[in-house]
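Chapter review: from sequence to fold.
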Amino acid sequence: MKKVAIIGGQRIPFVKSFKEYNHISNQEMLTFVLNALVSRYQLAGKRIGEVALGALLNRSTEWNFARECVLGTALDPHTPAYNLQRACGTSLDAAIQLGLRIGCGQIDTGIAGGSDTNSDIPLLFKQQLAWKLTDLRAAKTLGARLKILTSIRFKDLTPVYPSIVEPRTGLSMGQHTEKMVAEWGITREAQDALAYQSHMNAAKAYAEGFFNDLVMEFKGVKKDTIVRADTTPAKLAALKPAFDPNGSLTAGNSTLYTDGASALLLASEEYAQQQNWPVMAHLVDAESAAVDYVNGEGLLMAPTYAVARMLKRNHLKLQDFDIYEIHEAFCGQVLCTLKAWEDVAYCKKLGWDAPLGSIDRTKLNIKGGSVAIGHPFAATGTRILAQAAKILQERGSGRALVSICTAGGMGVVAILER
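The token string follows.
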């Protein structure tokens, strides 16, 4: 297998939905990011082996989304592209799939990425209206058309907004996480403390210039707008519960609806050397997993399984990492995961005779996590990969664990090394 090199990532600032990027499409955001990669690595007119992109909130008419994004760039139009989607793990999964193809020698280069916006959501109408309009189009006579038109009721015109709920349970991700934190005994104070640290780490990273070459200005926005350098434990403690009046999840310790896009350039080690591209880090291994959340397992606990299997395959311990990038869908979900890895009985379910153990929390999301930076669903994976790779590059060596939980009770994880 060839070594899979992470060359670099680009993204636009992540912003709170319904504000700065209002009415801007996924395609516009992601095409802008791709063009930034093209410019940075002199890819104009060049054919990339494969481009894999995704978005959760897209339209049925955007069936060719990835290819349209590529055709909007200066890349050689012979560059192929495809869509994929695994909820919040979409762009991480895109990078993993391309990494496998690079590793086995099918392609030399690949671009993975994702985009999501709540500010340009595709509204739907009830299925009954869709059926009537379909019948109307097929009707052959004026009488048949009038009959269908007069059957349309005002209630048929009520729009159906996309909803982040699990179809099998009817519960939102936040409601499921409330169940998880109750099961694992995670306190509101612990969640707020993790949220505070996430904001402080992100604010410090901005002050040090860490994001200068990762985040580029878009539509007049120069930096992530959700990061709060001025937040305090007291401000976080004053927020009301967001999903359950008696719960512990708030807008402060949960990710907010976010708009944004990100992308990552990968290559074989040999091709990177030919192009004189400095290698930030290598994508070494990855794993995905799912849990039976319908029958009681925690919705966002799948990364516990995925990490356990990946560690065993690589003969590693949980402590054998210099940094941990764990996606903060909710601070409560991160803390449940960490506590589960310390639990003897739970780790037996994961195939380990002893607990995986605890991690050094000073190594967790050291440049800020999703609660502070934001979470445009499909864009988070390549945002985290680029961030982790740059940390390893600055360190000069090391190993990173990347972990992302997703809707549907799934998780995607990876190992980076330098």
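Two observations follow directly from the output. Residues 345 and 355 are 8 Å apart (CA to CA). Residues 124-160 form one domain.
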